[in-house]
């Protein structure tokens, strides 16, 4: 190339960018060079550099370059060897969205739109929801305003890629001089190159994580230690105690064990020996004799460690404790061969107004939150004994009652001034908490049928509220991007879990919290969010201790396994993921539902997971076999799917709520909806 | 509101005209086109944002359908005024704007205040309730009405299981789902429409042609038979409709691609109704006689085509018709229909069933015919129609019989003597005919063709003439002649025999005996008819024969 020409390019570039002084200096230098003393710069002779300079000189603002570059890269990736293809195709999505955002950012709205529409089909299958969000971004100011776009711009995408694919890609980019694409890839993609053959599974969840720098934070957070074990001196422990002693003095015995570590270990070993009695529910009352015999079978699951409570737990009254112990003693052992019975509560004549449903721990009370801001509580034990035969075994412990009403069978609780989004029963069933779009949480007594407290604190609709497993404390989450911990006796929250309390990066991506769930040991709460992540928070410190990344749409439901080791989360697309809390890794995704998973529940001993979905089915999943298998197969690197045991379709009733009673009877609730005509 | 400083034209879903219209509607008249152009993409972004929020609200209400309240909720979240207010329950009806392909507006009708106030109160909505049932018992779904039926889940195509209670040995066959293509459905609808509308006779004629010739209509046959049966029972007062329906029946019968036999039992009652019903059409001008004539031919056509496969078809039909004829309580119109029906079935039927009952019937008809006794003109007209029909039937019958006589047959001299002898003793003659007619009705007898059915291989008939000991004169005859003879070649003895036998395989002896007997019967008949009708029968008798008799 003519050196003169290069100089001209450089001059033009400097002028265009407004570096006038630099241009002047260059000009002077050129004059000086023309004097012919020496040539200090060697860029005239370096062809690579020349090319680079030339590409810079090309019209910087030409929007067609994006389209050309992308479509070339695309056709190259699609035509690559099958072995490396899926790895290379992973690169396409981040390049695509950043090309689009670059175009928008430079103000080429029309070209951006055309570019987006011509290539969106490629990515619709996996990233449909993100695309729908991005589609609306049309002017540069939107990029600033929209959180999702901003977080995309600020973070890098992590892509796992094998050495060979990586080399292929670089080679291609250099050969074709597509500096634009190279720039985008350099700027927004963080390659994690590994040696060896490419991964065969194209749907590896870890392969692509959109929020890259956030991923690092998440990794960092996930290093933190958590105590996922059960509380020492839990009722289960006491049950073991009473079971072995067969005495009525369990309470005193149980309390005397405080802090006795060795003893608790022993007990925890014993807990594993809890029987897998396959009795029928009807025989529940057969008493301890049968239970004792059955208890001799042992299960292999390693016992959960015991931890101390970080919160001051409420003292349980003796008779409540008695009743819970009685229930635990009579629990039906469930497994893949011993399925639970499912009792279904169908709401009829809801006129599309039922927003949420909740079932008390013994299944005798059912609450529904309605969009007309009312809450209705049914006492199923009282409604026609014939219809609720299921309850007879369960309701003997239930001593609260709903005031008999001549006209209706339910208790109407009025107080909210907006749609009620969530309701939860305290473990003994004497209180109901409800959260509403009017930003308040209200506490109701099921004995007095009256509103006791109104908790104000959130600034936006409160989406979900959950009692802690021991009552007294409750957690709520809201559209204002916080989750809060409350106790019943204070109108101010005890803790506010917000992004800014933990980390700046997190705050960027922390969006509206969808659902909240307590860890069985009360030390942690988990929140699911519309940013497709699930977080685990330490209740005591208010810190985020785990981030679970992997869902492809917003998380709608959460459940914690009774031993505190695992967590299940269900999302909008019908995928359920089971997580190991300690490693923050997804054990396996559970595919099967084809619509929103509204509700999840673990059985009493954690062997089964029940899921209720908007596709009008209740599904049972075998989680024991899978967790065991995963351990064995982890070495093989083989992801195995949890077994779907059963599917119970309802008659066009989306399943809103699920609850395993302490005796392992599964209750489900939903509103009958007319099938679309 | 921030706006990008760009002079370039934006591309957005919202056109700038919309922005201008909205601006005008809220009182901003001097909005520059540039501003509108810049506003458009931002408007799109905001709308998308609100919809996204609305979807979130929908999810939290645990619904999968977006409602107006969700959008209101989303607006609330942004501290905006809700725009939808109280929902009206029912879905919003959109109407297409005339002249635009994709422009819709809501149908906002004016409601009269008075109507609203005076309208009866709507039913109070039912209160929310909870129903409890077992979704599963120990992992097994019980088959109770509250649960979704299991069959539906396993095989959605077969939503009912057909059960036969005949016995365990019969293998239960699931009903085959009958799928009718859209085109056939349309065709059927069109034909039914044309049949019912009666307004477009030329189109209807073409439809009939199509019905009579198109292949591939077979799947529609059950629908057509149903349609015809329904419409006939419903539209007995509608003469034109009945006539149209009968035309449809005829076209269906004519169609060579249609296999109509299985549906005949469904079709016949309607057809016979159109033949012998007391009243067809409600107007005086309705020419129901035509309809009856037409239907009579139709019946004959059916018998001719399906007599083979449906052995009892003709016997049942004639029984019905004779019953109608001989019942003096039935109206004259019904008698007419019966006579026409019988006449159409052929002269053998007429001879056996009508002529045998001719004398008592005519005596019954006599008072009606007399203009002085019957004052009712209508009745008298009907009576004359019946009389004409019966005369025609008898006349055609006798004509057919006589036509087949040989010109100069050797046995002819014996006719007058024999015939006369028989006429005198009418009693045994009638008895014999009675036997014949009963045979005619016997289910074992095969009726292959309408005329000449008498020649069937009935053993009794064969035996009787042999007992008469009238030896046949012509012993050498080709017995199985396949040629179809139209019967108007009486000069040859061969043809005569063909006429009688109609190509059926009967022994030669039987044929000859039959001819002999037939000749005798014919002679007797002619004399009798002459007695009854007088000179009115004469035009039916061929001239050659006339000379013989008179």
From TrEMBL, chain A:
Residues 60-189 form the TFIID subunit TAF5 NTD2 domain. Pfam families: TFIID_NTD2, WD40. Keywords: Nucleus, Repeat, Transcription, Transcription regulation, WD repeat. Coiled coil: none annotated. WD repeats lie at residues 347-380, 413-445, 455-496, 513-547, 548-589, 590-631. Its main location: nucleus. Residues 243-301 are annotated as: Disordered. The keyword Transcription regulation applies. Residues 248-270 have a biased composition (Basic and acidic residues). It is found in: Nucleus. PROSITE patterns: LISH (PS50896), WD_REPEATS_1 (PS00678), WD_REPEATS_2 (PS50082), WD_REPEATS_REGION (PS50294). It comes from the Eukaryota. Belongs to the WD repeat TAF5 family. This is TFIID subunit TAF5 NTD2 domain-containing protein. It comes from Brassica napus (Rape). The lineage of its organism: Eukaryota, Viridiplantae, Streptophyta, Embryophyta, Tracheophyta.
Automatic annotation (TrEMBL), chain B:
Residues 408-503 are annotated as: Disordered. Residues 471-486 have a biased composition (Polar residues). Residues 428-442, 493-503 have a biased composition (Basic and acidic residues). Its main location: nucleus. Belongs to the TAF6 family. It is found in: Nucleus. Keywords: Nucleus, Transcription, Transcription regulation. Gene3D superfamilies: Histone, subunit A, TAF6, C-terminal HEAT repeat domain. CDD domains: HFD_TAF6, TAF6C. The keyword Chloroplast does not apply. SMART domains: TAF (SM00803). The keyword Nucleus applies. It comes from Brassica napus (Rape). This is TATA box binding protein associated factor (TAF) histone-like fold domain-containing protein. It comes from the Eukaryota. PANTHER family: TRANSCRIPTION INITIATION FACTOR TFIID SUBUNIT 6 (PTHR10221:SF13). Residues 12-78 form the TATA box binding protein associated factor (TAF) histone-like fold domain.
